[in-house]
Design goal:
Two copies of one chain form a homodimer.
Chain A lengths: L2 H8 L3 H8 L7 H14 L5 H8 L4 E8 L7 H17 L2 E8 L3 H11 L4 E4 L8 H8 L3 E4 L11 E4 L1 H14 L5 E5 L5 H16 L7 E5 L4 H12 L10 E4 L2 H14 L8 E6 L15 E4 L2 H16 L8 E4 L2 E3 L24
Parallel strand pairs in A: 1-2, 1-3, 3-4, 4-5, 5-11, 6-7, 6-8, 8-9, 9-10
Antiparallel strand pairs in A: 10-12
Helix pairs in contact in A: 1-2, 5-12, 6-7, 8-9, 10-11
Chain A binds a DNA duplex (30 and 30 nucleotides) through α2 and α4.
Chain lengths: 357, 357
DNA sequence: CCGAAAACTCAAAGCGCTTTGGCTTACCTT
DNA sequence: AAGGTAAGCCAAAGCGCTTTGAGTTTTCGG
């Protein structure tokens, strides 16, 4: 059943039927009801492609999905997507994923732009040498960035969390607790969020009069494996008297590995070592679920997804104009994994982690 | 730049240009090259909506994304998506996600069907009371199921792994190792995969002459929290002489929680308890990454995603005809978390898990 | 050199919708 | 009663592409 047939059946013109269906005012209420009822009864739904062609709107927002053997879509993405989906639903837009090999992303954006298959795109995982912002702007695609580039602003809209503030506050807490030897197991510093976080850490150290060299900083993709490996590297053969006592971790997955290393090395939290982790709020992996509940900096990536969707739709519809920079504060939630730095003398007892139970 | 303009520029008709671009044979090689070169140079890309309208093809495959406060998109989905994306790329199709509240899925499928916004859909997470197969078939949308319904076959195409065989083999291994008290911490048995797996477990037990009542079976969504909770329920106050010694776990996340409970209770693997887990092959959480490396049944959900995409495209193009039922075998990979059942006398020593290091 | 087949090219008709601009009626004003 | 206004409806013109059916040119065997 298409519009023409429906119009013939109703003995009305396509124009009137279309208008009735789309809520235009020039149609009598009685007629509108008749049309709606008939459409309902015959299961008429406008052909989305025809509508898109006629309106020039795609009714969907796009994302270029990096694929390739080295690029793992991580769990953060799902949570984010889930949030977007929630909002997309209420605005009746679809999400369109265009897979592209990492090295040929820009091509994918060009294709999207030229073929007008989406109304706007969102960019995530901002990198230090971010090319996409300029590209997408040149292509004239409405867009919204999740995260931001390194330079203060280049006049684009974004939503980001206050990564620097979060890690600044977390570091300050460790310093206030008396920790003087810190380690930060960071995400990949090719990404700006990791750089911002590192800035937060060093700023707090500087403010506290602690030389930045005191920080053991390691950077790698955020997963269990790397967390374990880097923690082992850091602590396995370290002198208990000089090894770090305060650890910052970039993600829950990293921490999973770090905690495994701690267990294996017989290091107890928070007696031997304190740890603060960034928590993106995964429903399937919670800081309360660790044997020693984790102190975290928390910001829901899912909620961010919903907000991004909302704003992107507004941008597309011209509701939000001009570059808007939105930065969310991050909560610091203290749980059991942080405590005072071990006193010099008491440090380094090798005990079984179970002794604490 | 659109087709008309390009044609005018080239002083050719739209027909010829279109044909040249789409590889039809009726156009002279020299002309084709000239057209392709000009298209390239001017960055011409056909408007995807116009093309879709004209051809009736959407060039994308769809998925109804369940959203809502109780539905968490889990990490399995991302991995799967990632696999689909890899293949989608090579076939130049997009992935279109239509968010829908769990209770109103069917509506979303109807909308997809009527609006012809995708060429086909894939269904995943098959449930016991699966409604979608009949629905989608009635709607006339080409589809492919990931997993299968409970009834042997209703004449639809699917790709599934041999869940029953996997858990049968895993259970048999535990039985061969002398375990006689088994526990299975299963996923939600509203889903067929969980039912199939349970069937595998009970079949192995029956074959081995062990009454099915001996199995402690618990079912819940597969995450860390539930794994921990169910394992604690099962072992906290249990008599070491009668508690299960062999545990089957439905997912790596569940196992994360189970292992946490074991650690907390001072139970060692494999001396006190053996465990076998199903591994969907997440790049960020590997069975080798556990302190005691996990014995697993393994099947890559990512590879399944790629294959589903491939077949779905074939189905859409009429290459694959008739219902094809594809069932993948699952590997059983023995690592360190399985061992002989503890002898009656030796069982239940309460030791620190670190003693093993 | 001719005529038929092969090779190219084109105008125009859709695909199913939205939207412009105009045309009828019915209803008020003065 | 004439003129004006608003309400309600419609025909037709796109949106940018593919594809049909037909026309024109080239090629080539006889």
């Amino acid at each position: 059943m298409n519009l023409k047939q429906l119009a013939e059946y109703l003995e009305l013109s396509q124009t009137t039927v279309s208008r009735a269906l789309n809520g235009y005012p020039e149609v009598r209420e009685k007629t509108r009801r008749r049309v709606l009822e008939a459409a309902q009864r015959h299961g008429y739904k406008p052909n989305s492609n025809a509508r898109k062609l006629a309106t020039g709107k795609a009714g969907s927002i796009g994302y270029v999905l990096p694929v390739g053997r080295n690029v793992d879509l991580d769990p953060h993405f799902v949570e984010f997507l889930s949030g977007m989906g929630e909002h997309a639903l209420s605005r009746e837009v679809d999400l369109s994923l265009t897979p592209a090999p990492y090295e040929r992303e820009s091509e994918a954006y060009s294709r999207i732009a030229a073929s007008r298959s989406v109304d706007g795109v969102y960019l995530s995982s901002m990198r230090n040498d971010e090319q996409r912002i300029a590209l997408v702007r040149d292509l004239g695609i409405p867009f919204l960035a999740h995260g931001r580039a390194l330079e203060p602003s280049q006049g684009y809209s974004f939503l980001d969390i206050d990564n620097e503030g979060a890690f600044h506050d977390a570091t300050r807490l460790l310093l206030q607790l008396g920790h003087t030897r810190l380690a930060y197991i960071n995400g990949d510093t090719d990404y700006t969020f990791a750089v911002h976080r590192l800035n937060g850490v060093t700023r707090a150290m500087t403010e506290h009069g602690l030389p930045v060299e005191r920080l053991a900083h390691h950077s790698a993709a955020m997963n269990e494996e790397n967390g374990y490996r880097l923690a082992m590297d850091l602590f396995r053969d370290a002198d208990p008297a000089t090894r770090p006592t305060g650890v910052l971790s970039a993600s829950m997955f990293t921490t999973l590995g770090i905690v495994r290393a701690f267990n294996q090395l017989g290091m107890r939290m928070p007696d031997d070592v304190s740890i603060i982790t960034h928590d993106d709020v995964f429903p399937f992996l919670k800081p309360e679920s660790f044997t020693v509940q984790l102190t975290t900096t928390r910001s829901s990536i899912r909620v961010a997804g919903a907000r991004i969707c909302e704003r992107l739709v507004d941008i597309i519809n011209g509701v939000e104009k001009g570059p808007v920079e939105e930065v969310w504060p991050v909560e610091l939630i203290v749980r059991a994994s942080t405590g005072p730095a071990p006193a010099e003398g008491k440090r380094g007892r090798r005990v079984s982690p179970q002794a604490a139970e």
